[in-house]
Structure formats: C-alpha cells, structure tokens
TrEMBL record:
Record-linked Pfam families: ABC_tran (PF00005)
Family: Belongs to the ABC transporter superfamily.
GO MF term list: ATP binding; ATP hydrolysis activity
Keywords: ATP-binding, Cell membrane, Ion transport, Iron, Iron transport, Membrane, Nucleotide-binding, Transport
Domain of life: Bacteria
Originating organism: Devosia equisanguinis
Topology versus the membrane: Peripheral membrane protein
CDD domains: ABC_Iron-Siderophores_B12_Hemin
Principal cellular location given in the protein's record: membrane
GO biological process: iron ion transport
Protein name per its UniProtKB record: Putative siderophore transport system ATP-binding protein YusV
GO CC aspect terms: plasma membrane
Length: 265
C-alpha cells in the first residue's frame, strides 16, 4: 500500500489557537487506516481540539489535515460528514426530542433536496440503535434519559452517520462499568469486523491501553510520543506526561499493560 494511503488521516504541522492561546503547536500525527487510535493526556493538552480539527470544526492557524491524502479544506461540509463522524464532548439537543429523532440526525450528511428518506436510512438508524442498546427507548424524550442512556443515544447518532472514520471524544463519560465495556466492545467490533478507522479520546489510561492499536500521548499541544500500548505504558513517560508516579504491570487476562498510580510525581 502507498505510504500516504496507509494513513487514513494525516495531521501535518497543525497549529490552532483560541484567541491568543495556542492549543495545538505544530502538531503532526499519522492515523493508520483500519486501526483504533486513542488520544490520551492531561486536561487541556489539546486532545479534544485535535478531534475538532480533524472534523474541520475549527480552522487552524497553519498546517493541514489530510483524509486519504486529500486536504479536508477542499471538501464541502456534507461530503466530509459522509466520511468522518464525530461525537464531541457535552453535545446538546432539545430535551423534548425523542431518541429516534436524535439518531435520525446522523443521516443528515446523506440527505439532499431531491433525495428523500430511504429504506437505507431506516436500516442505518435501526442498526445504530440496536448496536447501542437504545432501540427499546426510541420513543422516549431525551430529557427523560439518564446520563448513560443519553450518551448511548448520542453514540447511536454518530453510528447512523455510517462513516468509515469515527471520532469519539470521551464516549464512556457518564457510563457505568458495564456500559463502558459495552461501548468500547462495540467500537472494537466496528473496527475489527467492518474495518472502520476509530479515533478516541479517553481519560482512563488502562482502558486506552486495553483497546488501542496506536496510543498517542498529547502534551502541551504536541504529540509527546505514540506507539503500541506495550511501548507507551512506561513509568518514566507517564510521570512526564501525567505528573504521576506509577507502576506498570501486565494484565494476565488481556495481555495489555496496566497503570497503577502511586502518587503525584
């Protein structure tokens, strides 16, 4: 495979600011096709901003984001929405909207003036709700849902978008342990069975190490290091990036490294 196309997304020297505050500082990152890439790092390091930049929700000061070797700045909004789906942090919608109405919003990039709602749209919405376990509450108002139920409904909306690239910013936020596993196992199936490229932001370093093919530590607006979890989960690197002294042991069940925090570094 051509080296460029082996990376589904290529972030090149991206600098992005909010006012005078530089959030991403000449950041570069290849995101391999057909893998799960997990972004981890301390609060405020630029992880969520990077996801937004990949989905072109914030214009950079300089640099570029390539999708299949094509600069996303040349794509119109709906064309990009058919190729990259994003669930941002703390999304909002009218409280009286039903779960099904929310999930149907995911089909917006596929709609056109002369292209009415189709059986394919219904199939995508039904599959997304079934896959996230919200099909039984399709008629409920989202204002009546618990935090975990609502998060699953939002994930269903992104899945209904039916994109080859899925970006999820803290998708297990507000979920209990069982639903965290359900969510990340669903993401894994989308990757392994359907070949979708997944980019996740996760704060739980042990979940990141368990599910990532590529683990990326973002620090001070740059990529500090990236690689397989077995390479990345090092006590010295965790102390530098997260300011935590930790021991690293191997999970005997999943054969992935686990971080045991000891104290602030």
């Amino acid at each position: 495979m051509d080296d460029q196309l082996a990376n589904r997304i290529e972030v090149k020297d991206l600098t992005l600011s909010y006012g005078t505050d530089v959030v991403l500082d000449a950041l570069s990152l290849p995101i391999p096709a057909g893998q799960i890439t997990v972004l981890a790092g301390p609060n405020g390091c630029g992880k969520s901003t990077l996801l937004r930049a990949i989905r072109r929700l914030h214009a950079p000061n300089s640099g570029q984001v390539l999708l299949d070797a094509e600069d996303i700045s040349g794509l119109n909004g709906k064309a990009l929405g058919r190729r990259i789906g994003l669930l941002a942090q703390s999304p909002s919608a009218p409280q009286d909207m039903t779960v099904e109405e929310l999930v149907r919003l995911g089909r917006y990039p596929h709609q056109a003036m002369l292209q009415p709602w189709s059986p394919k749209d219904d199939e995508a919405v039904s599959a997304a709700m079934a896959g996230t376990g919200v099909d039984s509450m399709r008629s409920r108002r989202i204002g009546s849902l618990s935090g975990g139920q609502l998060q699953r409904a939002w994930i269903a909306m992104v899945l209904a978008q039916d994109t080859d690239v899925i970006c999820l910013d803290e998708p297990v936020n507000h979920l209990d342990m069982a639903h965290q596993l359900d969510c990340l196992e669903l993401v894994t199936r989308l990757n392994r069975d359907q070949g979708r490229t997944i980019v996740l932001v996760l704060h739980d370093l042990n979940l990141a190490a368990r599910y990532a093919d590529q683990l990326v530590f973002v620090h001070n607006g740059r990529v500090r290091e990236r690689g397989a979890p077995e390479v990345m989960m090092r006590a010295d690197l965790i102390a530098e990036v997260f300011d935590v002294n930790a021991a690293i042991i191997m999970d005997p069940i999943h054969a992935r490294p686990v971080c045991i925090p000891r104290s602030r570094a």
